[in-house]
Specification:
The protein has 100 residues and is mainly alpha-helical. The protein has a domain of 55 residues: Orthogonal Bundle (Arc Repressor Mutant, subunit A). 71% of the residues lie in helices and 0% in strands. Helix 2 packs across helix 3.
């Protein structure tokens, strides 16, 4: 009879520590996984995700997380400016009607 496979959920601190062992200490993802009792593909994925989020992009301008934060800020600013434009349109229409 097959046993049920239970999924192990690792904390952010655990993942961060594993990534630091690979990036700062120079261990391979395979070795870190074996020593910590984690899956090698999981450790490799954590390292890949860390690099995507925290290392500069190809042109060296900013990290992915910085770019995502900037997009979020710009979307919010765009929404505010659209609202202000609508208010100004209504005000202009109101004063144009009043001047006639």
């Amino acid at each position: 009879m097959k046993q049920k496979h239970t999924r192990v959920i690792y904390t952010k601190e655990f993942k961060s520590g594993a990534v630091k062992l690979v990036l700062e200490q120079g261990y391979s993802a395979n070795e870190v996984a074996r020593r910590l009792g984690a899956n090698q593909t999981s450790v490799s994925r954590w390292v890949r995700e860390y690099r995507q989020d925290n290392e500069p992009t190809v042109n060296g301008a900013a990290t992915r997380s910085e770019l995502e934060a900037e997009v979020k800020r710009l979307l919010k600013e765009n929404q505010r400016l659209q609202m202000e434009r609508e208010i100004l349109k209504k005000a202009a229409a109101f004063f144009a009607k009043e001047s006639n």
